[in-house]
Design a protein that fits this description.
This protein has 630 residues and is of the alpha/beta class. The chain folds into three domains: 256 residues, Rossmann fold, CATH 3.40.50; 192 residues, 3-Layer(aba) Sandwich (Dimethylsulfoxide Reductase, domain 2); 120 residues, Barwin-like endoglucanases, CATH 2.40.40. Helices cover 33% and strands 15% of the residues. The chain is built from 24 helices and 22 strands. The chain has a six-stranded mixed β-sheet with strand order 18-20-19-22-17-21. A five-stranded parallel β-sheet has the order 2-1-11-12-13. The longest helix is centred in the N-terminal third of the chain and has 19 residues. It binds ligand MGD (2 copies) and molybdenum atom (MO). The site of one ligand MGD has 31 residues, from α5, α13 and β17.
C-alpha cells in the first residue's frame, strides 16, 4: 500500500466516524519513548487537528504516581531535582522499589563511587536484587507495605530526635499532622505489617539519623500500586523531616523509566496536560498555549480520561471508536490483558505507528512504519531534567516516515496543513515558545545550543540563561514557597491473599530485555540470555509445591492465568513470586494483573496480585512460557 493510500484510509475512516459521533470519537495513545518533538506534536494534533479530548500515554503506567506526589510535595515534577553526579557525594543513599543494577546500569557508577568514599546504601525491595546485593543494608518487606515502613522509620527518627527542626519550621508545612500520625507506627506494629524485623528497622533509622547527606530515590516498585502516590509521599516526608532536600548531595527524587520518560511527560501527551507541564484545567495555562497555537482557548478540549478509562470507554457513548497508537505495545504492557484485548476489539479503527510489528500492531487495521530512534534527529529530556540531543546516525529504510512526518501528513489530510511541522527543529522552536512561562520552561533552549553540545537543565527561561541543575536551594515552587508534608496512613492493599490465592505475585524487569521486548527479542545475544518467561520462587515454596527448576506451574490470579517454567531462587521471600513483564503471547504477566488503579495518579497496580500456584505436567518444548510473539 502506498503512503497516499494509507493516509486516505486513515483520513476517510476518521472523517466517517466524526461525522456520526463527533470529534471525541478519535483518540491517540503515545509513549515515553517518543522524542520531545513527537510528544508535543501528538498532543497538539489531538487537541487542535482532531479536536478530541481523548489522549493519554504509557507514562500513565510508569511515572504517574511519581509525578503526582512530587507536585504535591515540592510543587514541581522533575524526576531528580539535582544532577546525578550528586549521588556520588551522598553519605547515604536510600533506594525504595528500584533495581538500577538491572534497569539503569549506568547509574551504578555513581553508587560505586559513593561506596568507595565510605557511603552507605540501603535498598528496600521484596526481592534480593543485584542492587540489593550491592547494598550495605537490604530491607525485604512484604509487597505493598511501604507506607507503613516509611511511617515506621519516621517514628524511630522522631524518637532519636534526629529531625531537622530548623528546616521543618522554615521550609515546610504540614509537619504536625505527620508527627501525630506516625505515633501509630511503633516498631513492633511495623514489623507485623511489613515483615521487616525491629532490629533491621532500628539499623536503618540509625544510618539515616547519622547521615550528613542523604539521597532518597523511589521507582516503580512502590509507585505502580493502588497506593503508589501515598507511598512516594510517605518517603518524601522522611527526606523533608531530616532536612535532606535542596543541598548538594541531599535530595529526594523518583527514577524515570523510559528513554524520554521525563520529556515525554512534560509536553502534552498526558490526558490533563499542555506543553511546558501546564494544566489543561487552568484557564491561564489554556490561554497561554492557545495563543501560541493561534486558536481561541475555548477551542481547546477539556482534560480527557486517563489510560484505563480511555480503553474502558471504547465503543461506548462518548468514548472513542478510533485509536491511533504512537510508541506503545499496550496489548502486552497494559494491566488485565483480557480487558485490554476486549476493549481494543470494540474499536472500529486501530492504527499503530511502530518500528516493529508488535503484538498491538498485529491487531491493527493499519500499521504505519516509523523510523527507529537512530534514524532521525530529535531531543530527549533525561531524569535530571537535562535536555539531550539525539542526532541521526543512519538513514531510514525507504518509505519509512518519522512520527512527525506522519502527524504532519495526517493533519494536512484532515484539513489543517499548517498545524504540525514535519521538521524537528521547527517543532522544537514552537515547543519552546509554548512552554515559555510554564513549570517546565524550555524557552531558552534551541537546536543551536544543543548542536553546540550544551546539555542544559530546565527551567531555562531565556537564551542567555544557563539552566537550573539543582532546584529547591532556597525555595520551593509552591504558592507559599514551602514544601508540603502529607500525612498518609498505611492502607492494606486491595489485592489480599486468602486461602484461594495464598501468594503474592510481583512483576518487573530483567537486565536482558527492554519493556515488551519488541527490540531486545530481535537481538540474538539478548534473546538467548532470556529466551522465555518464567516464574521465580523461593526454594522453600518450591519444596512445598514439590516443583524443581524447569517444571511448570499454573499461576492463577483473580483475573487470569499463565503457565510458566519454574526458576528457583533464594532471592525472593517464600510468600512472593516474581514474573517478568517483557514477554508477549500467552506468557504475558499482565494476564494476571488486576487493572485496579491508584485513586489519584490512576497508575495501575502492576506490583501486586494475589495468586495461587499449581504444578502442571508439560514437556519443556510445550511450555507456553516460550516467547510466542513479539
Ligand atoms: N533492563 C531493563 N531496564 C529498564 C527497563 C526494562 O524494561 N528493562 N524499563 C525502563 C523503564 S520504562 C522503567 S519504568 C524502569 C523501571 O525501573 P525499576 O523501578 O528499577 O524496575 P522494576 O523491575 O519495575 O521494579 C523495581 C523493583 O521493585 C520491586 N518491588 C516490587 N514490589 C515492591 C514493593 O511492594 N515494595 C518495594 N519497595 N519494592 C517492590 C521489584 O522487586 C523490583 O526489583 O526501568 C527502565 N530500565
Ligand atoms: N506487569 C507489568 N506491566 C508493566 C510494567 C511492569 O513493571 N509490570 N511496567 C510499565 C511501564 S513502567 C511501562 S513504561 C510500560 C511500557 O509499555 P509499552 O510502552 O507498551 O512498552 P514498549 O515495549 O516500550 O512499547 C513501545 C512501542 O513503541 C515502539 N517505539 C519505540 N520508539 C518509538 C518511536 O519513537 N515512535 C513510535 N511510533 N514507536 C516507537 C516500540 O517498538 C514498541 O513497540 O509497561 C508497563 N507495564
Ligand atoms: Mo516505565
Amino acid at each position: 500500500m502506498a503512503w497516499s493510500e494509507a493516509l486516505e484510509f486513515v483520513g476517510a475512516g476518521i472523517e466517517r466516524l466524526v461525522a456520526t459521533h463527533g470529534r471525541d470519537v478519535v483518540g491517540t495513545f503515545g509513549g515515553g519513548g517518543l522524542t520531545n518533538e513527537a510528544a508535543y506534536a501528538l498532543g497538539k494534533f489531538t487537541r487542535v487537528v482532531l479536536g478530541s479530548r481523548h489522549i493519554d500515554y504509557n507514562g500513565r503506567f510508569c511515572m504517574a504516581s511519581a509525578a503526582t506526589a512530587l507536585q504535591q510535595t515540592f510543587g514541581i515534577d522533575r524526576g531528580l531535582p539535582f544532577p546525578l553526579e550528586d549521588l556520588a557525594g551522598a553519605e547515604v543513599v536510600l533506594l525504595v522499589g528500584a533495581n538500577p543494577a538491572e534497569t539503569m546500569p549506568p547509574l551504578m557508577q555513581y553508587l560505586d563511587r559513593q561506596k568507595a568514599r565510605g557511603g552507605s546504601l540501603i535498598v528496600v525491595d521484596p526481592r534480593r536484587t543485584p542492587t540489593a546485593d550491592a547494598a550495605t543494608l537490604h530491607l525485604q518487606p512484604t509487597p505493598g507495605t511501604d507506607v507503613a515502613l516509611a511511617n515506621g522509620l519516621l517514628y524511630l527518627l522522631l524518637r532519636r530526635s534526629a529531625l531537622d527542626r530548623a528546616f521543618i519550621d522554615a521550609r515546610t508545612t504540614g509537619f504536625e499532622a505527620v508527627r501525630r500520625l506516625v505515633q501509630q507506627y511503633w516498631p513492633d506494629r511495623v514489623e507485623r505489617i511489613t515483615g521487616v524485623s525491629v532490629a533491621a528497622l532500628e539499623r536503618a533509622a540509625e544510618v539515616l539519623a547519622q547521615a550528613k547527606t542523604l539521597i532518597l530515590l523511589t521507582a516503580r516498585g512502590i509507585e505502580q500500586s493502588t497506593h503508589g502516590v501515598e507511598a512516594v509521599l510517605a518517603f518524601a516526608n522522611v527526606s523533608l523531616a531530616l532536612g535532606q532536600v535542596g543541598r548538594a548531595s541531599a535530595g529526594f527524587g523518583c527514577l524515570t523509566g523510559q528513554g524520554n520518560g521525563q520529556g515525554g511527560r512534560e509536553h502534552g501527551q498526558k490526558a490533563d496536560q499542555l506543553p511546558g507541564y501546564r494544566k489543561l484545567s487552568d484557564p491561564d495555562h489554556r490561554a497561554a498555549v492557545a495563543r501560541v497555537w493561534g486558536i481561541s482557548a475555548d477551542a481547546l478540549p477539556p482534560p480527557g480520561p486517563p489510560a484505563l478509562d480511555l480503553f474502558e470507554g471504547i465503543g461506548t457513548a462518548g468514548g472513542v471508536r478510533a485509536l491511533l497508537v504512537f510508541g506503545s505495545n499496550l496489548v502486552v504492557s497494559a494491566p488485565n490483558a483480557q480487558r485490554t484485548l476486549a476493549a481494543l476489539g470494540r474499536l472500529e479503527l486501530l492504527v499503530v505507528c511502530d518500528a516493529f510489528l508488535s503484538d498491538t500492531a498485529k491487531l491493527a487495521d493499519l500499521v504505519l512504519p516509523v523510523c527507529h530512534f537512530s534514524e532521525h534527529e530529535g531531543s530527549l529530556t533525561n531524569l535530571e531534567g537535562r535536555l539531550l540531543w539525539r542526532r541521526q546516525v543512519a538513514p531510514p529504510p525507504p518509505d519509512v516516515r518519522t512520527d512527525l512526518e506522519i502527524l504532519a501528513l495526517l493533519a494536512a489530510r484532515l484539513g489543517s496543513p499548517n498545524a504540525i511541522s514535519r521538521d524537528p527543529e521547527e517543532t522544537f522552536a514552537e515547543l519552546a515558545r509554548a512552554s515559555s512561562g510554564g513549570p517546565a520552561d524550555y524557552a531558552g533552549f534551541d537546536y543551536g545550543r544543543l548542536r553546540a553540545g550544551q546539555e542544559l537543565f530546565w527551567p531555562c527561561p531565556s537564551a542567555d540563561h544557563a539552566g537550573t541543575p539543582r532546584l529547591f536551594a532556597e525555595t520551593f515552587p509552591t504558592p507559599d514557597g514551602r514544601a508540603r508534608f502529607s500525612a498518609v496512613e498505611y492502607r492494606e492493599s486491595s489485592e489480599r491473599t486468602d486461602e484461594a490465592f495464598p501468594y503474592f505475585l510481583t512483576t518487573g524487569r530483567l537486565l536482558a530485555h527492554y519493556q515488551t521486548a519488541t527490540q531486545t527479542s530481535r537481538v540474538p545475544t539478548l534473546a538467548r540470555a532470556e529466551p522465555v518467561s518464567f516464574v521465580a520462587l523461593h526454594p522453600v515454596l518450591a519444596a512445598t509445591l514439590k516443583v524443581h527448576d524447569g517444571d511448570f506451574l499454573r499461576v492463577r490470579s483473580r483475573y487470569g492465568e499463565v503457565v510458566l517454567p519454574v526458576r528457583i531462587t533464594a532471592t525472593l521471600r517464600p510468600d512472593t513470586v516474581f514474573v517478568p513483564f517483557h514477554f508477549g503471547g500467552p506468557a504475558r504477566a499482565n494476564l494476571l494483573t488486576s487493572g485496579l488503579v491508584d485513586p489519584v495518579s490512576k497508575i495501575p497496580e502492576f506490583k501486586l496480585a494475589a495468586v495461587n500456584l499449581e504444578p502442571v505436567r508439560l514437556s519443556p518444548d510445550q511450555g507456553p512460557g516460550r516467547r510466542a510473539t513479539s
